[in-house]
């Protein structure tokens, strides 16, 4: 029988899961929501970051979060390069950049998956840390410390990125280029360089998000397929480009998945993201906090 205590536990775990979903989606909110780049390789970049964290943890016994920070500059440079190739090959050439760009990023995702398999095999990989394997009692429930760590870091990452985009000059420029690129060009700024920098930031945050991914659970090369629906669901539900909306939408998705998992089992949970996405598009196409 489904009790209120069980419901409360599902909601608590859902909030923790939702903040984690926000962390893995916030980069896509910038790339797709603000820059209009069809970045379907975002989950593959995320999994690649997790394997980078695994390698540093396995070889040098570096804490996963510190390993995520260590690879963040590399992912920033990776993002700069990826956007430059996308721009020169597709966006610069005209209006069909969206369709061809999807194929481009799908190709990158496939290449990343193959390279991970060649390097690490198909087995699941995990990391070690002092807070992994321990739990904290919350009433009748035990909450894994790893989920609490992921919750705190994910919340901080989302808030810091939102503040950066709203309080700094470059952050406001990124928002401006998403709204009126021509006006920004008339002001003497280079929209392409701003978008390239923004895509670098969107990729850099995956260093931390990838660390959270492998902290929460073991990873495997094809794990990106499980997150492509969730991340796009969160970004579209939030309202394209809304960082605060990303956090809210992610928590809603996390709570919904947790409740469905508790009530109906794990087989139904993956369908929740697509069901919620269709519902939001039918009722409010601009998203929860979209204009």
Written account of the structure:
With 291 residues, this protein is an all-alpha fold. The chain has a single domain, classed as ABC transporter involved in vitamin B12 uptake, BtuC (Orthogonal Bundle), CATH 1.10.3470. 75% of the residues lie in helices and 3% in strands. It has twelve helices and two strands, in the order ααααββαααααααα. The protein has helices at 4-34, 42-60, 64-89, 97-120, 145-167, 169-179, 181-186, 191-204, 206-216, 224-238, 243-264, 269-283, and strands at 135-138, 141-144. The chain has a two-stranded antiparallel sheet. Strand 1 and strand 2 (141-144) form a beta hairpin. The longest helix has 31 residues, at 4-34. It is globular. It starts with a helix and ends in an 8-residue tail after the last helix. The model has no long low-confidence stretch (mean pLDDT 89). This is Branched-chain amino acid ABC transporter permease. Pfam families: BPD_transp_2. One of its GO terms (molecular function) is transmembrane transporter activity.
Protein topology:
Blueprint: H1 4-34, H2 42-60, H3 64-89, H4 97-120, E1 135-138, E2 141-144, H5 145-167, H6 169-179, H7 181-186, H8 191-204, H9 206-216, H10 224-238, H11 243-264, H12 269-283
